[in-house]
Write a structure and sequence with these properties.
This protein is of the alpha+beta class. It contains two helices and three strands; from the N terminus they run βαββα. The chain has a three-stranded antiparallel β-sheet with strand order 1-2-3, with no helix packed on it.
Length: 85
């Protein structure tokens, strides 16, 4: 029986409420989420479809938060001495 090392750790995300496989890391809000959850190897995760928030093992494969993946809008570069109508 051949098993990969990813089969036990790094399981894909599956929402318990809607069954979606799109999950995002959620921001840690309280002191217990910041200091106690990591002791139990848990992290807050939010479903990308129904937005349910729950806790999963840190080995669960989820995407980065949307606000972390968006690039900051850059200021448009203005070239001097250019007339634009």
């Amino acid at each position: 029986m051949a098993t990969s090392s990813d089969s036990r750790f790094g399981q894909p995300y599956r929402c318990h409420d809607c069954g979606s496989d799109v999950g995002f890391r959620s921001r840690r809000r309280t002191l217990s989420e910041r200091y106690i959850l990591p002791l139990f190897l848990l992290q807050p995760v939010r479903c990308g479809e129904c937005f349910r928030r729950d806790y999963r093992l840190i080995f669960t494969r989820v995407r980065d938060r949307l606000s972390d993946t968006r690039m900051m809008p850059s200021k448009p570069t203005v070239t001097p001495n250019r007339n634009v109508a």
